[in-house]
Amino acid sequence: MSWLYLSLMAPLLWSLSNILDKFAIEHITSNYISFIFLLSIGNIFFAALIYFFLDTSKIDIFFASLNILSGLAIFLQYFSYSYSLEDMDVSVVIPIHQSEPLFVLAASMLIFNAFPTYEQAVGFFLIIGGILTLCMSQKTIRGLGQKRHIAMIFLSAFFGAISTILSDEILKSKNLEFVLLFNFSGYALGGILLLLIPTWRKLITQDLKKLNIRQIGIFGATNLFDVGGYIFFMAALAVGGGAALVSVIVSIHPLFVLFFGVIATRLFPNFINEDIAPSGILRKSISILIIISGITIAALNDL
Which of 59, 85, 132, 146 is the most exposed, fewest CB within 10 Å of its CB? Predict the structure, then answer.
């Protein structure tokens, strides 16, 4: 059961990060390139912290390289996410992004022949059904933006699935600290590689010159929430949750985003503006019941 609690902590922290992300991309940076650079570069600190306490004599070059590729997949996941977040509501981006378990499940079946149990399959489709119900409103449809934004969210989910599967396999022979070190390193490397493109380097430099301490603190906070959620997610995999099942449980992420979005809209309307009309709250409540039912059924074998 410990994997279940760890899996639930991940979306809780990620949702706080998402709310801050939306504020940062709208009120701090001038474009999504600068945003993802600042979001990714902070992972150097976390990688260095782990490296300081890790026994480097046990580092395996092959697994380290594979792990860095997993980290680069995380970067590409957030790069695609940032592209869409710049022009779409966070409460729309996150539910669509929960298509990631589809990619994880499909890959697990094709590559590892790991078919889900009947209960897991039923729970999985209930959760997806709840997420789709969550998106059913005229305001949501108007907030979808152009087709390229939706395509980029699915691309983000695809890269997230790649990272999840790679990390899950590496964790079978390596400890959690090893995986986190090189995932953070790969994520930070992706941000550094942005500087190789002159146009993007200029955009990043211009925004860096305008940053103040408060704005840096906001990026620090969203990084802490993001990394904290990722550590809980990886810990859930490490204790044997399984990539497909953990990803399904993490699919309740949109509920936390909506919860904090409603609070932020009521208390700080200039900070973020979400749909909190009675009809919207009813639709979201129905979605919550469907998703919770899915989580319960999916976890029956582990209760």
Answer: 146
d(CA 114, CA 93) in angstroms, rounded, equals: 29
Please say whether the dihedral angle defined by the alpha carbons of residues 225, 94, 254 and 21, taken in this order, is positive or negative.
positive
Q: How confident is the model at residue 4, as a pLDDT?
A: 81
CB-based contact 186:66 (threshold 8 Å):
no
What is the mean pLDDT of each successive set of 10 residues along the chain, which is 303 residues long? 82 93 90 94 91 80 90 94 84 74 70 72 79 61 60 86 84 85 94 96 94 92 90 82 70 83 84 74 76 71 53
pLDDT at 143: 46
Q: Is 101 exposed, middle or buried (0-12, 13-18, 19+ CB in 10 A)?
A: buried
- Residues whose CB falls within 8 Å of the CB of residue 231, separated by 6 or more in sequence, listed in order: 180
Continuous H helices in the chain: 2-27, 32-41, 43-53, 61-85, 90-97, 100-112, 118-134, 138-142, 147-170, 176-193, 198-210, 213-238, 243-249, 253-267, 278-298
Q: To 5 degrees, how large is the angle CA 10–CA 144–CA 80? A: 50
Residue 3 near residue 236, CB atoms below 8 Å: yes
Distance CA 171, CA 157 (A): 21
* Residue 91: closest CA among 297, 262, 266, 278: 262
Counting every residue written for the chain, the total comes to 303
- Vertex 112, ends 110 and 117: CA angle to 5°? 90
Q: Tell the residue number behind the tokens 């709250």, with chain if given.
A: 281
Treating both helix axes as pointing N-terminal to C-terminal, what angle do 278-298 and 118-134 enclose, rounded to 10 degrees? 170
Q: Buried b vs exposed e over 171-200: b needs ≥16 C-beta within 10 Å?
A: beebebebbbbbbbbbbbbbbeebeeeeeb
